[in-house]
Amino acid sequence: MILIKLGGSIITNKQKPLTPNISAINKIAAQLKKVREPIIIVHGGGSFGHYWSVRYDMHTKPAKYSKKGVAVVKNSMVELNEIILNSFLKHNLNPYCLPPTDFMLGDKPDLKKVKEISKIAKAGLVPISYGDVLWHGKNKFYILSGDRIMGILAKILKPRLVIFVLNVDGVYSDMKTKKLLYEIKSQKASITKVGMDVTGGMSRKIMEAAMISKSGIDVFLVNGNKPERIVNAIKGKNFEGTVFRG
Ligand code: IP8
Predict the structure, then answer these.
(1) Centre of ligand 1 from the C-alpha of residue 151, in Å
(2) Is 85 exposed, middle or buried (0-12, 13-18, 19+ CB in 10 A)?
């Protein structure tokens, strides 16, 4: 089984509020059709969820956020999720809408429900979850990032490999030279805080990728503008990107 995160930066146009990147979504879906293994998808918020989270000052920390904000952020994520579902449906990938409320209780995963997700994937559907705003209890809500969901699902489901699809080639050694790091063995990737958003942007992703790889799973970071690289990573072919060796 393969666990794939479609980053908000690739499925939306982050510069333009509430704008999906339909062509990138369709191209990724078309490539995924070539994969012969069960797949689970998680997607980010991009110019949907992140746009509204910033507007309403909402974060990953549980707090009593604006109720209007909670409603608006959640609605925007449902809207983005539907766009992805429709594209996957069009490409005969049999998507299965999976809001994180289906397997999270407060900030804890429901083990039994998480385990059912892999059964759904193995039955031939593609569960599609997403970063969202969740009820925490005691009048508090919090933003659960798609990257965090990746960590949670990877830990419980132990997929064969994990892929983060980005709009850059992978992890650069530094932002000036843009020299790509092909393989990160030690989990000590030094991180400069570039491109931060409400859930931590690239540094959060690197942290999550490093953590997942520590449990023995290979984690790939690939450019979704070249979606054939996703399939190459899955099929063990030469590919351009960064791998955190598990
Ligand atoms: O894009 C965050 O998910 P991410 C989703 O994976 C919201 O960080 C609601 C901002």
Answers:
(1) 14
(2) middle
